[in-house]
Design goal:
Structural class: mainly alpha
Bound molecules: zinc ion
Low-confidence stretches: 106-119
Number of helices: 3
Radius of gyration: 21 Å
Strand content: 5-15%
Order of helices and strands: HHEEEEH
Shape: elongated
Strand order of the largest sheet: 1-2
Mean pLDDT: 83
Number of domains: 2
Largest sheet: 2 strands, antiparallel
């Protein structure tokens, strides 16, 4: 359950956008270190700017995705989370979530079964 690779899609894209900003600033900083070599500084400045512009685009994309995401309450931590697609992970506790009943994990299924039986 604490699998690092299994993260919420929105969180993953957000991390990607944030790292793009950092990479952009690092590239620009390196560019300043090479201010004696004009073409290299210029190249690094342009690359840094592209990286930051890209992150803005990615942030915009997250905004677009968020409007399409389904807001649900996580059954594990009972917080509101956004789901993208048929299968996604909770943004808070990384609990795998699914819209498709046939894809639900064993533990999940058992809970549902026992609820049905008690009725
Ligand atoms: Zn959760």
């Amino acid at each position: 359950m604490a699998d690092i690779t299994y993260r919420s899609k929105i969180n993953r894209i957000r991390t990607f956008a944030l790292s793009l900003v950092f990479i952009g600033f690092i590239i620009m900083y390196v560019g300043l270190l090479f201010r004696n070599i004009e073409w290299l500084m210029l190249l690094l400045m342009i690359l840094g700017t592209i990286s930051i512009v890209l992150s803005t685009v990615v942030y915009f994309w997250i905004g677009m995705l968020s409007t399409r995401a389904v807001v649900i309450v996580c059954p594990t931590c009972e917080k509101q989370t956004k789901m993208l697609g048929r299968v996604d992970a909770c943004m808070h506790c990384r609990q795998p979530l699914t819209m498709d009943k046939s894809l639900e994990g064993k533990e999940f299924d058992e809970k549902y079964n026992s609820k049905k039986k008690s009725r």
